[in-house]
Amino acid sequence: MEGEPTLRLRIFDLNCWAIRYLSKRRQERVRLIGDTLRREGFDLVLLQEVWSEQDYSDLKVKLAGCYPFSHYFRSGVIGSGLCIFSRYPILDTLLYQYSLNGYPYMLQHGDWFCGKSVGVSMGVRALFLSLSLQLHAEYCREKDAYLPHRLVQAWELAQFIRHTSKAADVVLLGGDLNMHPEDVGIRLLRGWTGLRDAFAEATRFEGCKNGCTLVPDNCFTEKSELLPFPLGIRIDYILYKAISSFTVKCDELKTTTGPAPGMDIPFSDHEAVMATLHIQRQGQPVGATLGTADLVLADVVTEARTEVGVGLRAAQRQRYSSGRMAVLALLLLLLQAAAALGTLAGLGSEQPFPKLSFCLLAFLALGVLVLATGLHVFHTMEVKMLHGTEDQMRMALRVLQERP
């Protein structure tokens, strides 16, 4: 009822950059994160890139006293890296893995093997829908080959939130979205779901300038990647919205600023984001809205659909190229088989049969056939996913344009 005491909710979000054998001083930083979380006593902790389940187990043991409820989300070849710690009971959990997540042959990036996902938990004290997530990394802003995939992920995330949040009172989302605040993907996500940005809504802010979470002053960041952005970039977010008879206000937002107190290293190559939200019940349900003018949202959907279309055409070209390569490899194998049968039948016996060269060529053709077939299957699936997303966006755009 109106006038009930306000619930004060403190949220901690961090991309931990805890990759076994690769991340610098990983175990030391994980212990530091656990010590800080135990000391600060947040209500909800959303972590990404905790790739080692042993690291999660260590955190779970250390934080059992102040965060009795937790969950680790498993997906992909090496895991999703997502986990949640909470002071309040977790009623249910769900993991949704995006349909597109980079390319398996881009081994140096590895996003495909991670199984990028969104982990969802339902909690009590009002019915919270809490999401910890990570979208595909950008790697190169000038030639962003992964933009169509990231837009598909943003669209699927927005649709997922709209369909799963109907029974919730409050939606809380935290994670590394790998998008700048004005990128089309973040505008699509916020516009389609009505989520509000804690940085933009906060009454008080303290931390890195402009709320940046990837900054040049961090000793673990790649300085060359931030040359176009001398102040850094903001790609880690806490987003929220009230759905039923609640209102949510962000009283304070903070980011860490370099090394942890008393230490010579920061928690991660990303800065942590900490928000203090005030949640209060109102007299009447406020209802769910898109939160953005339909005409503006239609422009955003149109822009996203255009980029997805560009990715669709690129995927179709790659599918055609890999299919043609597979056909040529198959023809080469058939010619070799015909030559071998001719030799066995006694044709061309006046010359010795080059067995070694024949076998090497056969193995090469077979390898090309298997590789090209695999790529053709993968890009066929990519075309289907991009085509399906484009159709969904077209339908959504028609609804927006026809709305009175």
Automatic annotation (TrEMBL):
EC number: 3.1.4.12
BP GO terms, sorted: sphingolipid metabolic process
Gene3D superfamilies with a match to the protein in the record: Endonuclease/exonuclease/phosphatase
GO terms of molecular function: metal ion binding; sphingomyelin phosphodiesterase activity
Membrane topology according to the record: Multi-pass membrane protein
Keyword Nucleus included in the entry's annotation: no
Keyword terms, alphabetized: Hydrolase, Lipid metabolism, Magnesium, Membrane, Metal-binding, Sphingolipid metabolism, Transmembrane, Transmembrane helix
Transmembrane segments: 326-347, 353-378
Span of domain Endonuclease/exonuclease/phosphatase: 15-270
Pathway assigned to this chain's UniProt record: Lipid metabolism; sphingolipid metabolism; Sphingolipid metabolism
Compartments where located: Membrane
Domain of life: Eukaryota
Entry keyword annotation includes ATP-binding: no
GO cellular component terms attached to this protein's record: membrane
Homology family: Belongs to the neutral sphingomyelinase family.
Name the record gives this protein: sphingomyelin phosphodiesterase
Gene: Smpd2
